[in-house]
């Protein structure tokens, strides 16, 4: 990994991650597409595992300054993720953490909507209106929320679709083709 060129995040069209990664490599642009094993079962067939992108729709790229123009013409890409009017930089330590998780070969689940520690509100179901802190994601469908009630705390398990975050998200914009001016050197 280069010390001078930052890691950026490139948005792709749906199911085009492999195509974009191949095109980037053909243009000699450093790209990293983290993948994980996902079980699949065909009708009346054996259970198999397929390699799927860990973050569907995203590829990490580390282009040199002279390669930005080549990135504008990648089939299947939608442009860099921006923070304001500049490409959002992926901290190298965060990328290394992703690489460690992927290389561990453990079951990985990505929930882009909610993170433990967030303030959330139950918006449907029998607990509608309760606000609290998301303690943990029990599985893909269930969450454990800690709700302060009467000077004490009560934990409740709810369906993931019944909860929304109360915290503002850091705003990143995608799908805007970038002119690549103002990129950090």
From TrEMBL:
Enumerate the SMART domains for this protein.
Answer: KOW, NGN
InterPro entries recorded: KOW, NGN-like_dom, NGN_dom_sf, NusG-like, Translation_prot_SH3-like_sf
From its record, what is one biological process in GO terms? DNA-templated transcription elongation
Which stretches make up the KOW domain?
113-140
Q: Which domain of life is it from?
A: Bacteria
User: Which keywords does UniProt give here?
Assistant: Transcription, Transcription antitermination, Transcription regulation
Q: What is this protein called?
A: NusG-like N-terminal domain-containing protein
Natural source organism: Steroidobacter agaridevorans
Q: What is the lineage of its organism?
A: Bacteria, Pseudomonadati, Pseudomonadota, Gammaproteobacteria, Steroidobacterales
